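BUG: 3D viewer hangs when loading the predicted structure for this chain

Environment: internal workstation, default settings.
Expected: structure renders.
Actual: progress bar stalls at 90%.

Input used:
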Amino acid sequence: MNRRRFSRLSAAGIVGVTLPLDAVSRAVGHQEIRVDGTRLNRRMAELARFGANDAGGIDRVAFSQADLDARAWVRSLWEEAGLTTSVDVAGNLWGRRPGSDPSRPPLILGSHIDSVPGGGNYDGQVGSMGATEVAATLHDQGRTTRHPLEFVIFPNEEGGKTGSRALAGQVEAMELELETASGFTIGEGLRRLGGDPDRLSDVVRAPGSATAFLELHVEQGGVLDADGIDVGVVEGIVGIMRWTVTVDGTTNHAGTTPMDRRSDALVAAARFVDAVHRTALDMPGRQVATVGRIAVEPGAPNVIPGRATLSLEVRDLTMEGIERVYDAVRGRADAIGQDTGTSFTFERFYTSGAAPTHPHIRDVVEASAGTLGLSHRRMPSGAGHDAQSIAVFAPVGMIFVPSRR
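Structure tokens produced before the viewer hung:
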């Protein structure tokens, strides 16, 4: 993260975007409330000490002692800011601030603080500490919003967005037995946080139970930093589909089979990899397609491969866009099969739905950035975030800030 540029962003205080959707347009340009950028950066540095490693990053994996200690520290900050805190059965840490109209559904702000092993100091932290700074600023200035505000730290974002997906009713029982990087299963980890994995249905939110959710996050593609853009206005979080692709040819002797009489599965697979790349590159749009894994049978240097098994992943802002890429790739695979004497089969094994951000929230973020003199660009999120789960029951928005390396 470019510390100077982040200080500029945090000091600008884009707190106006947290206002109710039906009133937020009237508040654009009103810069009466500014967060304390120095305090925000200091607290991010303090949070980075929990699980700090020798490389300068963090090993604060979900459910580890560092994770528990960091959550307790954040909770203390929230209580200092006058929030009423609690932990639900899914391990989500909540802080609540009443509004002047308690009949209105709450606005939710937050992110996560768990990391991957060897993680960076800003992924999740920016949104979590940004939300914390909003709470502290409103408390310091004695301001009350019309809507109640809810602040949240989601658990195990890096290991499957467990906390946010529980709110959407998407966590399956089998997931609770999966072991995490901390050595605890997800179920055991939720209990360590004060949750109860046997009662996850208790936290499922109904549509309309929140007015909106806003998440601040570092942009992980390096685009904003490279292009010198201050703010990314997130258009949506991409959907993902993954397939296992099996290429069947004929296993045969590598020395005695003439080149023009081979049905080489690996040759067909190699052409397929290039076809996937070319298809996504040449089609209009922002879709991406990747072959990240390949295995060959029988895998001997003197045997023509009779089978190759590959992964195919396609991401796009719409599920229809994913299907278009897949249909085009499938057509090229059929042509490769005819040309090489092989056959292709596709088995889909993973789907994650696309989550567009709310158009009005995009407009407000963009207008606020312009008023503050911050350069901005609309862009998709190619990675998954907790906002993706919340979109099941509430409008969502995301703001990206640059992150270096």
